[in-house]
Amino acid sequence: MGAAPFAFAMPLFGTGDDDTGFPHLAPRVPKTDLGISQLSEEQLRWLRHDKFGMFIHWGLYAGPGRGEWLMHNEAILPDAYRRFAFPESGEEYFAADRFNPRAWARLAKDAGMKWMCLTTRHHDGYCLFDSPYPNAFTSQQTHHRDFVREYTNACRAEGVRVGLYYSVLSWRYPGYYDVTGTDCKRNPFGYKTDPAHHENARLMKEENYANVRHLLSSYGHIDHIFWDGGWLGEQGSDADGAYFHESGHFLDAGNAWPVGERWRDHDSSGRALGIMGIVRKHQPHVATNPRFGWMGDYMDEEGGAPVRGPVRSTALYQKCLTTAGAWGYDRGAIEGGHVMPPDMVIEYLVNCVVRDMVMLLNVGPDRHGEIPPAVATSLEKAGQWIRKAGEAIYGTRGGPWQPVDRKLGYCYRGSTIFAHMLKGYEGDTLETPAGRTPRLLRARELFTNRLLPFEVQSDGVIRIHKIDRTVSPVDTIVALEFERQIAAK
């Protein structure tokens, strides 16, 4: 039995010990931006508890199966892009004939996911709901169906929390690239500077106001919002676009792109609301990200890069990534077998958990509305492990000691610390960092409940022996049960 060479995790942020004897975790303190305050920790408790959600990118782009940026990447003009909504497009037709959101929700539950988030409208501007805006392009027009309503009903029927993705930009509007009408940004569609783009951009903004109010007032309680596309002309940051979108609490009477009175929403005093004002009016407890220009209740870490670094304690971070190639259905990735395997799903999730993060994992249903079998199988297999490890996943907080990249991390709940020994960790002995701690009552392997021998050294290091790494090689979990709570109340 070799000693663990990776037991040099650092105390959290060097902020000293709390009254439990463990390193103190620097807290998240809600802030205010553009007149809107972030949700409190109590309001975000469900998201921190649930840890794992399903992202779903589904729209017209599922027909051709070449990803959600198809319209942009292949420079397909709006009138030509519409064909994917109709049978004339043949094998590239977005048929939606086997759309079954309850099956999606059941798969999410089998995978250990607690909430779902569907693309109600992506950058192509196609709405999966019955938008009230006259210029909108919707599934009600093309399929005589409100897919968002079917989805939200299915989530609730299956006991899964409801999330909505909405993209602020729409490639259907040339004005997106030229909001002032004086400086058209580079784009694949051949649009040039045109004074008429100023009004076109205003119409794009107006549709957003109509859609956001509709989505947040017509589909019952919404738990989670994922904004996207707040940056203008695909340049700069989302915050840079806030002056145009009016992302905060109220509209500015002097804004150069005014929203028509019909599409405005108001507070009790009659004052016209900005985007986040509308959100807080209709869904005061919904958690949102920062991609509409406001700072967000939670932050994003997007993409497949490994989750590394310290515990994220001063803000709630959500890792979002996809299972197979592009975010939308990617036929090439699926047929080529490029699907995230179960062990990788587990590794990403555990690396989020020990850093006090949550994870939103994407699937791209095909043109019929079915999640590819290879993706479903991978999620189901990961879910079998996650259910067994649930005690060390759900309702935990990252820490109290810092993780060691690719090797080791910790999370805690109540009076128990869970040590996650990943594939990169060598040996069958675990050593905790030195320091004062409450008395350790017992150490056990999570999956077998086998009690493990341990000793406490004079410097406070706890050394646990005879850990069986073969029971769960992807992540061996040891539960350390102390006589007192881990976190100060």
Key terms for this structure?
489 residues; alpha/beta; Immunoglobulin-like; 2 domains; eight-stranded parallel beta sheet; five-stranded antiparallel beta sheet; 12 helices; 20 strands; 22% helix; disordered N terminus; EC 3.2.1.51; glycosidase; hydrolase
Using only C-alpha atoms, the radius of gyration works out to: 24 Å
Uncertain parts: 1-15
Head-to-tail CA distance between termini: 39 Å
How many individual β-strands?
A: 20
Instruction: Summarize the amount of helix as a percent range.
Output: 10-25%
Structural class: alpha/beta
- Which percent range describes the beta-strand content? 15-25%
How does the overall form come out from the CA principal axes? globular
Q: Mind telling me which CATH architecture of the largest domain this is?
A: Alpha-Beta Barrel
> Total helix count?
12
Oligomerization category of the chains in this entry: single chain
> Main sheet: which strands, in order across?
9-8-7-4-3-12-11-10
- Count the domains: 2
Main sheet characteristics = 8 strands, parallel
CATH topology description of the largest domain: TIM Barrel
Average pLDDT metric: 96
State the name of the first-level CATH class of the largest domain.
Alpha Beta
Q: Any idea what the CATH superfamily of the largest domain is called? A: Glycosidases
